[in-house]
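Continuing from yesterday's entry. The apo prediction looked reasonable, so today I'm repeating it with calcium ion included to see how the binding region is handled. Same sequence as before; SMILES copied from the compound registry.
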Amino acid sequence: MKFKIALLLAGIIWGCLFLIKLQYHRRTTLRVLQNHDNSLQYIFETLPQNTQKRPHILFIVADDLGFNDVGYHGSEIKTPNIDKLALSGVRLENYYVQPVCTPTRGQLLSGRYQIHTGLHWVLWPSTRSGLPLDNPTIADKLRAAGYSTHMIGKWHLGFYKPDFLPINRGFDTFFGFLSGHSDYYTHETGNWWGKFMTGYDLMDNDQPANITRYNGSYSTHLFASKAKDIIWGHNYEKPMFIYLSFQAVHAPLQVPENYMKQYANITDIKRRQFAGMVTCMDDAIGSIVDALKKRELWKDTLLIFSTDNGANPNAGGSNWPLKGAKGSYWEGGIRAVGFVYSLLLKMKNGYVSKSLMHVTDWFPTLLNLAKGDLNGTKMLDGYNQWKTIK
Ligand SMILES: [Ca+2]
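Holo prediction written out below.
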């Protein structure tokens, strides 16, 4: 009898151990599978638990802004609005982009390296190429997740066919220019080195913008005004994504006189003009934040600020103390100014993140916050960095 009871107990204990082992095996297997598909499962594992609402996303890109061109890095250039946001948000101080415009912008919108998209260098206006159409953009994915999506400013990802226009790459609306540079007032692009087509380059969705209305409007003011129009016209029922890609502070050096005057102490004329352009952009950002506050959208907004590459010292920018400049793979070319601000991050006010982050990471990170999915996307090179940032 005792032997039978002992046998029964042994069987029960063995059964329990087997079930525990089985459960452990299942969990381990699941973890391996999740790690194999890092993008999908990892995203859903790390959805922010404390935010039922999906944030409005304002993604601001400055063009050719260098490491030493913002006040909070010790620059002589005044950027009080940027400083306030950065110093009370999360400063990304180990954050990298590509050395020139198109590759960075292609990676930002697709989450994939240029080895997959072919966007290794800048696209000239006459180039018959663009961000390949089989790469959904972050705007495509956010729109599919229920966001209203808007782009303002510089595109630079191809326009040789209508299919490549922003309005056909996931953005509900577009107001901006398609090439890499143009005149800040006339919005005409020039024929540098014979590689550029000349002409008026300002689009309102898929049509040329009204030249009579916009000729003479300084692009920093114009793009900020368009961003505020979108904010004031926003339907509260939907989350909103605005990709605000300033022309500033790329060459040519053009600046309203009142901003030039603020820097009479800077003897180098190029640096003086550039400084005025940066401060003008800073004021524009301040006015957009004010609009979000007045519209009562600010508390639910995630603001991201990023440069697209390092500065060009020949056009007034500075990457000090980093070596190298725009166009190089030295730190001065690819280590970017970047920060995140949101009331969602209030537990980390003033936080400096030294964690490595790359521009491709925004795609899965934003999609995570938007509670979107990866249906239709190809393998991403970026990683969801929300746990690092928040
Ligand atoms: Ca650039």
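Comparison notes:
- Confidence is low (pLDDT under 50) at residues 15-51.
- Residues 63-64, 101, 250, 308-309 surround calcium ion (CB under 6 Å).
Will overlay with the apo model tomorrow.
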